[in-house]
Amino acid sequence: MRLSLLRPVIDRTGPWISVYADASYGAEDAAAQQELSAKAVTDRLFELGADEATCGAVHAALVTPPGGASAADRGRALLAANGEVVLDQRLPGRPVGPFATWSHLPRLTPLLEAFGDDPVCLVVHVDRTGADLTVRDDHGSRGAGRAHGTPAADWSERHFRTRPENTWERNAGEIAAAAGAAFDSCGAEIMLLTGDAPERRAVFDGLPEPLRAVTYETGHGGRGPGAESERVARDIAQLRAAREQEHVDEVLGRFKASAGPGGGADPEVVAGVASLVDAAREHRIDTLLISPDGPDVGSEVWVGSRADQLAVHGSELHRLGEAHPAPARADDALVCSAVADGAEAVVIHDVTQAPAGGLGALLRRTESARG
Predict the structure, then answer these.
(1) Pair type for strands 99-103 and 84-91
(2) Residue 3's closest CA among 105, 106, 156, 111?
(3) Would you give the end-to-end CA distance of the chain in angstroms?
(4) CATH topology of domain 264-370
(5) Does residue 217 surpass a pLDDT of 80?
(6) In the sheet where 75-81 sits, what is the strand order?
C-alpha cells in the first residue's frame, strides 16, 4: 500500500479513536442500523476514556451514509483525534473483525491489510474513433481526487477522440501517446487495453517498450455505456491481484536472500522488534513487511511526539529527551515511522512466508555499503 494516504494522520497529535466498522447496511432500515451501530461504537469509546468531542465527531460520521458506490459488502475506517475525523475511508470489503479503540497512535495495520498493495490499473477502451481511459483501484473506477505517488492530485477520466482525416496507424499512435501520458500522470502500475483485436494491437505496438511490459489485452468490453462489463471487471481484478502477488514475492525474495547465510556483513534487512525500532529511529527502513497475525505485531513499544521517537523501553526515550513517552503497538509505531520517512509497507498474508514474529524490513543502503 502506498502510505501517502496516511500522511494527514501522522501529522496530527493524538490520542486517537480508530474505528473499523461494517458499513454494509440493508436499504430498508439503513438509517436505523447506522444509528444503532454508531451508538454502540461511541458507548464503547466512552468506556475506554475517549473525549466527548472526538466521540461526537465519530458518531456524526457513522450516522452519515458514506458517499460513493453501493455499500454492499463494504467496510469503513475512521481515524479521529482532537474532536475531528481526520480520515474516513471506504474499505474494499467488510473488516474481518469490526472494532473501536482509543490509543496514543491510530490503528493502521487493519487499513493496510484491507487494501494490500492496491495496484492501480489504467483501462483503455479503444476503437477507431478514439479511446476512453479510466483508472481502476480498490476504490473502483475513479476520476479526480486520488493519484498514487504523484503530487498532481487531480487525474480525471479521459476521453480521446481521433481525427477522421488521419490514417488509423497515425490515430493509433496518438492514442498510444495519450495512454502513456495518462499512465504516468495517474500513477498506474499496469495497463489493460480493451476493444477489437486489430485496434488494441495497433495501440499496443505504439507504446514504448517499458510500458508494453506491463500492458495486457482483453477481448471483453469496448467503448460506450456498459463497456466495463462483468468480464472486464474480472480481467481487471485478476491483473491487479497478479501484480500485487508479484510485488509481494519480489519483496519477500529480496528479504530472504539478504537474510540468508550469504547476506553479507552489512545487512540489508532486519527482523525483530528491537532491530526494527533501531532502524526506524535511524531512518533506514525502505520497505516494512507486516504479517498481521505475527506474534510480534502487537508487542508494546514506546513512542514520543515525533514519528522517529520510538524505543523498546520508555526509559530510552527519556534519555533521548522525550519527557512524556507513551506505549503503542509495534506495528502502528513502525507504520507511522514509515509514512514519515516516505517508506513503503507490504502486507504478508501467509504467515509461513513472513519474517519471524511477523515484522521485518528491507533497509536503505548506507553510503559505506554502497562503496
Answers:
(1) unpaired
(2) 111
(3) 31
(4) 60s Ribosomal Protein L30; Chain: A; (3.30.1330)
(5) yes
(6) 84-91, 75-81, 16-22, 99-103
- pTM above threshold 0.90: no
Give the residue among 146, 109, 118 at the shortest CA–CA distance from 18: 109
Q: Which of 59, 84, 79 is nearest to 7 (CA)?
A: 79
* DSSP helix, strand, coil percent of the chain (3-state; round to 5): 40, 25, 40
Q: Which residue has the cell 430498508?
A: 28
CA angle 15, 18, 22 (to 5 degrees): 165
Tell me the CB-side half-sphere exposure of residue 145, using CA atoms within 13 A.
8
Q: What are 10-63's pLDDT values in tens digits?
A: 989 999 999 999 887 666 677 788 888 899 999 999 999 999 999 999 999 999
Q: What is the pLDDT of residues 60-86, one digit of tens each?
A: 999 987 654 455 557 899 999 999 999
Question: Which grid coordinates are listed for 182?
Answer: 495518462
User: Residues 232, 220: contact at Cβ < 8 Å?
Assistant: yes
75, 148, 272, 337, 358 from 342: Cα distances, Å: 27, 13, 21, 9, 21
Cell (9 digits) for 213: 511490459
Chain region(s) in the chain for CATH 3.30.960: 3-115
The CA distance from 361 to 270, in Å, is 5
Question: Are the CB atoms for 156 and 90 separated by under 8 Å?
Answer: no
Buried b (16+ CB within 10 A) or exposed e, 70-95: ebeebbbbbbbbeeebbbbbbbeebb
215-218 and 190-194 strand pairing:
parallel
- CATH code 3.30.960 for 3-115: yes
Provide the strand spans (E) within 82-170: 84-91, 99-103, 121-127, 130-137, 140-142, 158-161
